[in-house]
């Protein structure tokens, strides 16, 4: 594992999670203790590191809006049409209801058989060669295939999906805009095709949906597609990879899971807490307010460091330990309140089935520790680019 993060005087001026490397946790601890509600002058933003402070933000969307304003003027804030992450009530509630049916527990459970088929096909390389990259060979393609099939996207276009998704979460604004432009141009063409020939997929369902008797606007559908693509694969890719990191760092936990596979769901929850796939999210202050004696002004941004909250000792006893039996485990990895991740059940299921099949297929999995770990380049995400392993067939 990477050495402890070097806490520098200007470490608070973080613009992308990837700047912190794979061990930001000492910095989180330092900030929680000494400056838990920090004002970042460079960004004109507040940064929160404590669990309860972040809960306060998510519980009050009327004060901390999901809209984004690059100008600092809330009147200019972006109320993105179909992107649930950047939409406030009541529109958020209306739009979320449209896609909820695609992510009900029953619907997700019915996908288990297909997910197992996909995982088994992806593990074939390991069976044949004795080695694989858990990211490139499993964690990346699995959620991309699943969400592509839900959207009705043909297999030959999945690589483009992944490329656009990586650009959209990039800390580079130019890359982000390029990814969004190319993705939206692609889906505009898909929409035209579906208007001519509806299919049994989410895109066709959105075309036929309506809110209060009115059909969705094209921009709203495009926003939905963008969100489903990014949220549908980036978070799950990181979750699977981060689980691999945890099981490598704590082999005793992996051994216990092999002996009792019923521990896997609880272990995944601990992975979500211990190495959260998303380390922070942002809000915009739309009403002057006070938080623990600090005066937050209209137009200022608020960055909530989930990764820090999930290791807050006020909420989690012995937060620096990886405990696969931890209960309760009220982590914030999937958010809270109205913006709780809609795809959480799917991410959990994909990760659970991925490791069930890994442990069933290979009696031994050895991580190649001589290969340096490279953090993904992301504004908010936490994960590794590659995770090389040697495997032995069961």
TrEMBL record:
Molecular function in Gene Ontology: heme binding; iron ion binding; monooxygenase activity; oxidoreductase activity, acting on paired donors, with incorporation or reduction of molecular oxygen
Domain of life where this protein originates: Bacteria
Region span, Disordered: 66-86
Keywords assigned: Heme, Iron, Metal-binding, Monooxygenase, Oxidoreductase
Pfam families to which the protein is assigned, alphabetical: p450
Signal peptide region: none
CDD domains: P450_EryK-like
Xref: Gene3D superfamilies: Cytochrome P450 (1.10.630.10)
Keyword Plastid part of the UniProt annotation: no
Xref: PANTHER family: CYTOCHROME P450 YJIB-RELATED, P450, PUTATIVE (EUROFUNG)-RELATED
Family: Belongs to the cytochrome P450 family.
Designated name of the protein: Cytochrome P450
């Amino acid at each position: 594992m990477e050495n402890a993060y070097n806490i520098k005087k200007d470490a608070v001026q973080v613009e992308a999670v990837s700047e912190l490397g794979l061990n930001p946790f000492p910095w989180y601890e330092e900030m929680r203790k000494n400056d838990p509600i920090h004002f970042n002058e460079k960004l004109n933003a507040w940064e929160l590191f404590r669990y309860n402070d972040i809960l306060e933000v998510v519980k009050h969307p009327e004060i901390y809006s999901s809209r984004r304003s690059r100008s600092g003027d809330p009147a200019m804030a972006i109320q993105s049409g179909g992107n649930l992450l950047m939409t406030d009530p009541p529109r958020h509630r209306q739009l979320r209801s449209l896609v909820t049916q695609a992510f009900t527990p029953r619907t997700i459970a019915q996908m288990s058989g297909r997910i197992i088929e996909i995982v088994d096909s992806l593990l074939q390389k390991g069976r044949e060669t004795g080695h694989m990259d858990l990211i490139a060979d499993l964690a990346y393609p699995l959620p991309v295939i699943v969400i592509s099939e839900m959207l009705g996207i043909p297999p030959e276009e999945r690589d483009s999906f992944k490329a656009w998704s990586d650009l959209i979460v990039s800390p580079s604004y130019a890359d982000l805009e390029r990814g969004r432009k190319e993705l939206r141009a692609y889906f505009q063409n898909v929409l035209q095709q579906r208007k001519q020939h509806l299919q049994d997929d989410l895109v066709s369902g959105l075309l036929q949906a309506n809110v209060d008797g009115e059909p969705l606007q094209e921009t709203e559908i495009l926003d939905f597609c963008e969100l489903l693509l990014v949220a549908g694969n980036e978070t799950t890719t990181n979750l699977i990879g981060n689980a691999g990191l945890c099981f490598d760092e704590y082999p005793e936990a992996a051994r216990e899971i092999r002996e009792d596979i019923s521990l896997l769901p609880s272990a995944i929850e601990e992975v979500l807490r211990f190495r959260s796939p998303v380390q922070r999210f942002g809000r915009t202050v739309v009403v002057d307010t006070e938080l623990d004696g600090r005066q937050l002004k209209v137009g200022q941004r608020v960055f909530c460091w989930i990764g820090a909250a999930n290791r807050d000792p006020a909420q989690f006893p012995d937060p620096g330990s990886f405990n696969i039996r931890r209960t309760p485990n009220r982590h914030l990895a999937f958010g809270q309140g109205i913006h709780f991740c809609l795809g959480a059940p799917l991410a959990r299921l994909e990760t659970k089935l991925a490791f069930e099949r890994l442990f069933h297929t290979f009696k031994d999995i050895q991580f190649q520790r001589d290969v340096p770990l490279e953090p993904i380049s992301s504004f908010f995400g936490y994960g590794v680019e590659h995770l090389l392993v040697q495997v032995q067939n069961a």
